[in-house]
Specification:
It contains one helix and no strands. With 77 residues, the chain is mostly helical. It is rod-shaped and about 105 Å long.
């Protein structure tokens, strides 16, 4: 094989090595940045009891009037 053929093969080999390293570094960087956007632990379930009604404050009454003002509470979902 001539000298140019060996040199061409060496250049291609280095190009492939550089490409593989670039892909590996970019993949690792992508995974590292993706994990950094996640919220920090510990992860726990919310203690929700749908059968139990929440404790609501009493309806306000105007000063001097014996009748309560109509008030409504909306359950947030």
């Amino acid at each position: 094989m001539s000298m140019t053929g060996e040199r061409r093969r060496r250049v291609w080999r280095w190009a492939v090595i550089v490409w593989v390293l670039a892909v590996a570094v970019a993949g690792g960087l992508t995974l590292w940045l993706q994990d950094s956007t996640e919220p920090q632990g510990p992860y726990v379930w919310e203690n929700a009891k749908p059968d139990k009604t929440p404790d609501l404050p009493p309806c306000p009454t105007p000063d001097g009037a014996g009748l309560p003002i109509a008030c409504a509470y909306v359950e947030a979902r």
